[in-house]
Amino acid sequence: MTKTAIAIRHVHFEDLGTLEPLLHKRGYVVRYVDATVDDLTAIDASASDLMIALGGPIGAFDEGIYPFLAHELALIQQRVANRAPILGICLGAQLIARSQGAKVYPLGVKEIGFSPLQLTAEGRQSPLAILGDTPVLHWHGDQFDIPPDALRLAGTEVGVNQAFSLGDTVLGLQFHLEVDVRHIERWLVGHANELGQAGVDPRTLRTQAQQMRERLDAASGAIFTAWLDGIERRAEESAQRAPS
Questions:
Q1: C-alpha torsion sign, points 110, 7, 64, 148
Q2: What is the C-alpha separation between 112 and 218, in angstroms, rounded?
Q3: pLDDT, tens only, 198-233
Q4: Taking the CA of residue 38 as centre, how many other CA atoms within 13 Å lie in the half-sphere pointing to its CB?
Q5: pLDDT given at position 175
Q6: How far from the centroid of its chain's Cα atoms is residue 216's Cα?
């Protein structure tokens, strides 16, 4: 039976990255939904086996400027309420947090670059434990509070809340575990103005990306595999319990 994954995208180059070939390998048909042009109200929140809300250079509270965010927020809220698997990355994680009543607000600085996470006790019991001290790509200026009933999994010295889980179907990541660093040049060009304003040298990020590639690819693949194993196992158990 074919599995489906919907990826909500806000800018073209912030895509599924290394997660996309893994999903294909596991039998998922991947469909991108471009939030800026596609009708989000036409999407059935529970029709797909997996939903991924990706990153973007706007705020989770900017629906007054970008009205589509209100529709995306409602879609995510319904998805979580239905206990359907959803992964949020950066802006996507902020929208999940906001959909559950948590605050999202400016961090006060830009956290851009590669650095490791500080895992909580819960994080060390989660798939994120596979990371160890592997640096991940941070690229944000906002931060979420941890939603009610969710587990805080990780932080950094700059941003105390970097990851959370809600039950066994919702995972929010402030950082970009999915990034394919072979394509980092698209990020450096696409976010050139932000890098300039933050005083971040793209040459430094390019060098770090080249140095981190093998470690990050291996860690991200193992983490996403472990998380997908969990949600697919839960789906199988639910199907077995369902009345015939």
A1: negative
A2: 21
A3: 999 999 999 999 999 999 999 999 999 999 999 999
A4: 15
A5: 98
A6: 15
CA 25, CA 185: separation in Å to the nearest integer?
A: 26
CB contact at 8 A, 180 and 18: yes
Whole-number Å distance between alpha carbons of 203 and 195: 11
Instruction: Report the alpha-carbon distance of residue 7 to residue 75 in Å, rounded.
Output: 13
- Please answer whether residues 53 and 92 qualify as being in contact, where contact means their C-beta atoms are separated by less than 8 angstroms: yes
DSSP annotation string for 93-160: HHHHHHHTT--EEEEEEEEEEEE--EE-TTGGGSGGGGGTT--EEEEEEEEEPPPTTPEEEEE-SS-S
**Tokens for 219?**
């860690």
Spacing of C-alpha 36 from chain mean position: 18
Dist. CA 126–CA 223, nearest whole Å: 9
Q: Where are the domains of the chain?
A: 3-241
- Overall average pLDDT of the 78-107 stretch: 97
Residue 1 clears pLDDT 80, i.e. is over it: no
What would you measure as the largest C-alpha separation in the chain, in angstroms? 60
> How far apart (Å, rounded) are the C-alpha atoms in residues 153 and 242?
31
CATH class held by domain 3-241: alpha beta
d(CA 36, CA 12): 10
DSSP-assigned letter for residue 38: S
175 residue type, one letter = F
> pTM higher than 0.85 for the full model?
yes
Confidence category of residue 244, pLDDT binned at 50, 70, 90: low
CA-based R_g, the chain, Å: 17
Mean pLDDT to the nearest integer, 136-141: 97
**d(Cα 1, Cα 8) in Å, to the nearest integer?**
23
